[in-house]
Amino acid sequence: MTIQSAYIHIPFCVRICTYCDFNKYFIDKQPVDDYLDSLLLEMERHTKHSNTNLKTMYVGGGTPTALNIDQLTKLLSGINNLFNIEGEYSFEANPDELTFEKVKLLKSYGVNRISMGVQTFKPELLNILGRTHKTEDIYNAVKNARDAGIESISLDLMYHLPQQTLQDFENSLDLAMQMDIDHISSYGLILEPKTQFYNMYRKGHLKLPNEDLGAEMYQLLMHKIENSRFHQYEISNFAIEGHESEHNKVYWLNEEYYGFGAGASGYTNGVRYTNVNPVNHYIKAIKNEEVPLLTQTEPTINEQMEEEMFLGLRLNQGVSMTKFNEKFNTSIENVFGQTINDLKNRKLIEEKSDYIYLTERGKVIGNEVFEAFLLNI
Q1: 3-class SS string, 184-207
Q2: Which of 9-18, 58-67, 225-234, 340-349 is least confident?
Q3: Which GO terms fall under biological process for this protein (predicted)?
Q4: Structure pTM?
Q5: Residue 16 has what DSSP assignment?
Q6: What's the Cα-to-Cα distance from 134 to each of 17, 119, 125, 161, 377, rounded to whole Å?
């Protein structure tokens, strides 16, 4: 099967957020131009041997909009010289960095989807998260994106935050849903090692809301979306019809994609890989004409079947039994029959026509359902 999607990682930020565990670096005094040259070189080497027609491209980070106009121009023109992007072309952005000049530049190079890291509309919570933007920046950024002709605008919102009440989250959700946007991604906070939040928590300086409140926030989210112009299509993602994230569906449908840049992950030819993290190590590897790999693993057939289940079950439509059979030459019942029956009895999954999918209760405790599909063989 021809790979038709690519992810590009820009590991620079104007400020490091307290909760973030992605591969990122404070942009000041970083070798940004050397990094971009290396990134384009990695992609150029790839295009000599592989498909250059893509259906989806996603540029994430870090924060790609932390780059200045000249750097963005170098990146965008380089991408367009190497790839023909026929469908969804997404760029992550911070609201206070998405000036009209920048978004107009993105649009001129074919970017048609902006994913904005809003997280919350409450100033006190933005401060706790280490965000650089203010509430009014969110409105300005959405207007700039719309005025520039961006077709799809998505906002990220977080819940289960320190000091966040149910009312706080509902207020942010209401404000987001009233805006001229097409998509909302909403995630509960997970304390990840090596983050400022994690260190604060270990020292007793951070108190999280209890798990029940987190579940209540998620249920509120689903119910409010149900009665709005948005629809839920994945555990954490909600869209107006025609604005679902086609790139992220590649991950959830367990399909292959390229990953470019420091710390980027990819899945090609049955192999999952991760590039080296430190920017200087990545640049050095590219300059030495080395493949900048940190890890590569070939999932076993059992691991592939597990992935098919816990990734596919994230989608509202669920996992296709026919596709599973075609992909693995065996039925879901043969592999997971007992697990499926147990989860059905607990009313965590349901089966309809060709699909197995999560119930509402199953979505609330999704991780528990996914773990049930680990074969331990």
Answers
A1: EEEEECCCCCCCHHHHHHHCCCCC
A2: 9-18
A3: porphyrin-containing compound biosynthetic process
A4: 0.94
A5: -
A6: 14, 11, 11, 18, 50
